[in-house]
C-alpha cells in the first residue's frame, strides 16, 4: 500500500507530541537501528499513533507500505512484495506492520537492512529484547484527555471534562466514543452518574476495539465452564470485601458470600469484568487481540508468584496471589494518604486469617500493607495488625526467619510512633540480635544499628550521639561517605547535636550534609528535606543566621508541599516553623 493510500488519518488524535516529534524520528533514523515497536496495552492508541506519524512524515519517504498483521504466512507474502517494490524506488522507504501479537510471528520476516521498519504490538516489552527498540504508548495525559473531550463538546467545563476523563481512565477509545455521545447531546453529568455496569454496556457498543469489548470477549472465551471466574468470585468472598479497587472505568465490585454463584451460567458479568480488569492492570492476566484470556489457568496464574504448592487449596493460593498483586500497586513512596476505596480493600486484606498466607511473598505483601499504615501515621492500627501477624507466624516460623525480623523492624516504628520508645528500642534490638543476621550484607546490619540509635535518642540523646558516630564511621568505611545510608546517619547526628544544645555545630554539619544530599539524592528527596528543615531549626536556635533560617524554612515548606502535599505532617511542620520564625523577625505572620 503506497503512502497515498495510507489508513485514514484519525480525526480525534491528540497528544503524544514528544513521541511523534522526537522519540520516533530518532529511533527510526538511528544508524544500524533495529525495527521500532510502538508498544501499548490494547486500545491505548499505538495504531492511531503510528497512522498519525505516517501521515506527518509521508513526504519524507519515497514509498510507504502499511500491513495489517493477520497471520505469519500472509504477512510474509506482503512483506516480500513490499521489499521487492522498495528495491525499484529511489530514496528512503518505510515498512509499517500493525498488530503483531508476538515477536515470534515476524521472526525472520523483518529486513536486516534497507527500509525503516515500524511495528505496533501489545506484547510485553521484555519479549522484544534484542529484536527491536520499544517505545511505550501510554494512556493520554489528563490535559490531552480534557482537550479531546472538549473538542467534541466545546462548552464542557474543564472540571467536568477532567472528572469524566478520570472515570474513563484516559483510555483513547473510551474517550472518543463517549465524546461522540456528548456531541450528540448526552451530558457529561449523566455519564458520571452512570453505574459501572451501565457504562460498560454503553462502551460495549463500541465493539471489540474498546476495553469493555475486549473484556466482554474474554468473558465469553471462558465459557462453558467459568471455572476461572468462579475461583475469582470465591476468592473475593473469602477476603470478605465489598469493594475491590480498579482504575479502569469504575471502582466497585459488590457482592457477598451468598451471591457467589453455584453454577457457571449464573456468574454475574459485571463481577467478571471487574475481576479481569484488575488482574490485567496488575499484570497477572493478559488479553489477546480477540479478547481471549492468555493466563486463565489458575496454576499458571499463581505460579507467577511461586504460589504453586498443589497441596494447598486452589482458593487459598488465589487469595494470596491477589494479595501480592494488590500490594505491589498500592504503596506510595512519598507517604501520601491512600484513596478511600483502596484503603478499604487494603483493610480487608490486612484482616485476612494469617493462616491463609503461607509463602514468603505473601507474608511480605501483608507486611507491606501494614507499612502503608505507618506511612499514614496510623501507628495504633499498625501495632495491632503487626502483633496479630507476628503472634500467628511465630508459631509457624523459626524465630530467625527474615519475615519475623522485618515484623520486628515495623513494630519498632509503630511503638516509636505511639510514643513507647523503650518498646521500640527492644523491638529493634531483637531484630538486630537475630542469628539470621549472620551472613547478611553489612548494609542491613548497619541499618538496624541506625534504627536502634534512633530509638535510643528518646531516652539518652548523648548515648545515641556516640553510637551514631560509631555507626557512621563503619558506614563510611563499608559503604562510602556519599552513600544514602551514611548521609542519613550524618543527618541524624546533626539533629542529635541540636537536641543536645550544640546549635552551631549542628548547623555546620547539617549544611554540609544537605549539600551532599542535593547532589546524591536530589533537592526534593524526603531525606534531603528532613535535613534542610532541621538545618533551619539549628540556624534559628543559634541566633546567628535568623534570615537564612527563614529562607530555608520557606524552601522546605514549598518543596514538601510539592512532593508530599499540603496535608502531610512534615509539610505542616515546616509551615509552622516558617510562621514562628517570621514572628521572630517581623511584627506579624506571613501569608503561607
Features:
five-stranded parallel beta sheet; mainly alpha; 57% helix
- Poorly predicted runs of 5 or more residues: 245-267, 435-441
Distance between the termini: 62 Å
Q: Can you count the helices?
A: 25
- Sheet with most strands: strand arrangement: 2-3-4-1-5
Largest beta sheet, briefly?
A: 5 strands, parallel
Mean pLDDT over all positions: 76
Strand content: under 5%
Q: What's the total count of β strands? A: 5
Structural class, from helix and strand content? mainly alpha
Radius of gyration: 29 Å
The shape, in one word, is: globular
**Helix percentage:** 55-70%
H/E element sequence: HEHEHEEEHHHHHHHHHHHHHHHHHHHHHH
Quick recap:
This protein has 592 residues and is mostly helical. The protein contains 25 helices and five strands.
List the helices and strands and how they pair.
Elements: H1 17-28, E1 36-39, H2 46-57, E2 63-68, H3 72-87, E3 93-100, E4 116-121, E5 133-136, H4 142-152, H5 158-167, H6 172-183, H7 188-192, H8 196-204, H9 211-221, H10 227-239, H11 269-281, H12 298-303, H13 314-328, H14 340-350, H15 360-375, H16 379-394, H17 402-417, H18 421-432, H19 442-456, H20 461-478, H21 484-499, H22 503-520, H23 526-542, H24 546-564, H25 569-585
Helix pairs in contact: 4-5, 4-6, 8-9, 9-11, 10-13, 13-15, 15-16, 15-17, 16-17, 17-18, 18-19, 19-20, 20-21, 21-22, 21-23, 22-23, 23-24, 23-25, 24-25
Amino acid at each position: 500500500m503506497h503512502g497515498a493510500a495510507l489508513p485514514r488519518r484519525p480525526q480525534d488524535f491528540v497528544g503524544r507530541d514528544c513521541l511523534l516529534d522526537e522519540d520516533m524520528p530518532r529511533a527510526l533514523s538511528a544508524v544500524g537501528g533495529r525495527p521500532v515497536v510502538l508498544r501499548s496495552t490494547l486500545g491505548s492508541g499505538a495504531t492511531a499513533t503510528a497512522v498519525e506519524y505516517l501521515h506527518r512524515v509521508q513526504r519524507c519517504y519515497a514509498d510507504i507500505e502499511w500491513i495489517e498483521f493477520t497471520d505469519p504466512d500472509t504477512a510474509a507474502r506482503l512483506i516480500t512484495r513490499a521489499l521487492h517494490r522498495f528495491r525499484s524506488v529511489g530514496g528512503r522507504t518505510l515498512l509499517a506492520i500493525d498488530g503483531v501479537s508476538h515477536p515470534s510471528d515476524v521472526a525472520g520476516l523483518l529486513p536486516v537492512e534497507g527500509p525503516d521498519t515500524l511495528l505496533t504490538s501489545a506484547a510485553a516489552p521484555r519479549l522484544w529484547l534484542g529484536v527491536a527498540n520499544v517505545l511505550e504508548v501510554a494512556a493520554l495525559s489528563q490535559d490531552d484527555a480534557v482537550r479531546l473531550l472538549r473538542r467534541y463538546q466545546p462548552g464542557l467545563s474543564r472540571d467536568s471534562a477532567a472528572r469524566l476523563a478520570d472515570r474513563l481512565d484516559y483510555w483513547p477509545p473510551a474517550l472518543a466514543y463517549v465524546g461522540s455521545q456528548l456531541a450528540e447531546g448526552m451530558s457529561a453529568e449523566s455519564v458520571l452518574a452512570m453505574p459501572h455496569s451501565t457504562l460498560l454496556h454503553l462502551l460495549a457498543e463500541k465493539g471489540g476495539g474498546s476495553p469493555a469489548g475486549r473484556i466482554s470477549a474474554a468473558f465469553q472465551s471462558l465459557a462453558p465452564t467459568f471455572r476461572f471466574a468462579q475461583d475469582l468470585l470465591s476468592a473475593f468472598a473469602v477476603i470478605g470485601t465489598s469493594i475491590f479497587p480498579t482504575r479502569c472505568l469504575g471502582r466497585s465490585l459488590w457482592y457477598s458470600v451468598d451471591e457467589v454463584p453455584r453454577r457457571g451460567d449464573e456468574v454475574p458479568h459485571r463481577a467478571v469484568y471487574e475481576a479481569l480488569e484488575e488482574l490485567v492492570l496488575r499484570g497477572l492476566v493478559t488479553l489477546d487481540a480477540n479478547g481471549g484470556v492468555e493466563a486463565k489457568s489458575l496454576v499458571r496464574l499463581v505460579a507467577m508468584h511461586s504460589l504453586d504448592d498443589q497441596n494447598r487449596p486452589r482458593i487459598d493460593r488465589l487469595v494470596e496471589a491477589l494479595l501480592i498483586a494488590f500490594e505491589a500497586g498500592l504503596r506510595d513512596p512519598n507517604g501520601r494518604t491512600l484513596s478511600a476505596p483502596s484503603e478499604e480493600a487494603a483493610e480487608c486484606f490486612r484482616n485476612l486469617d494469617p493462616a491463609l498466607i503461607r509463602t514468603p511473598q505473601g507474608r511480605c505483601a501483608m507486611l507491606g500493607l501494614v507499612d502503608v499504615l505507618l506511612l499514614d501515621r496510623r501507628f495504633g492500627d499498625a501495632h495491632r495488625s503487626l502483633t496479630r501477624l507476628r503472634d500467628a507466624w511465630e508459631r509457624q516460623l523459626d524465630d530467625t526467619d527474615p519475615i519475623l525480623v522485618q515484623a520486628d523492624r515495623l513494630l519498632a516504628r509503630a511503638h516509636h510512633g505511639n510514643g513507647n520508645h523503650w518498646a521500640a528500642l527492644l523491638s529493634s534490638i531483637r531484630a538486630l540480635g537475630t542469628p539470621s543476621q549472620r551472613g547478611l550484607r553489612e548494609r542491613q546490619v548497619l541499618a538496624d544499628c541506625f534504627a536502634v540509635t534512633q530509638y535510643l535518642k528518646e531516652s539518652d540523646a548523648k548515648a545515641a550521639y556516640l553510637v551514631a558516630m560509631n555507626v557512621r564511621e563503619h558506614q563510611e568505611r563499608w559503604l562510602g561517605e556519599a552513600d544514602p545510608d551514611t548521609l542519613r546517619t550524618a543527618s541524624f547526628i546533626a539533629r542529635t547535636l541540636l537536641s543536645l544544645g550544640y546549635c552551631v555545630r549542628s548547623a555546620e554539619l547539617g549544611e554540609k550534609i544537605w549539600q551532599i544530599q542535593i547532589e546524591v539524592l536530589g533537592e526534593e528527596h524526603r531525606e534531603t528535606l528532613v535535613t534542610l528543615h532541621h538545618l533551619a531549626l539549628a540556624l534559628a536556635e543559634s541566633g546567628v543566621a535568623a534570615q537564612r533560617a527563614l529562607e530555608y524554612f520557606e524552601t522546605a515548606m514549598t518543596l514538601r508541599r510539592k512532593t508530599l502535599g499540603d496535608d502531610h505532617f512534615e509539610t505542616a511542620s515546616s509551615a509552622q516553623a516558617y510562621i514562628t520564625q517570621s514572628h521572630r523577625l517581623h511584627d506579624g505572620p506571613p501569608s503561607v
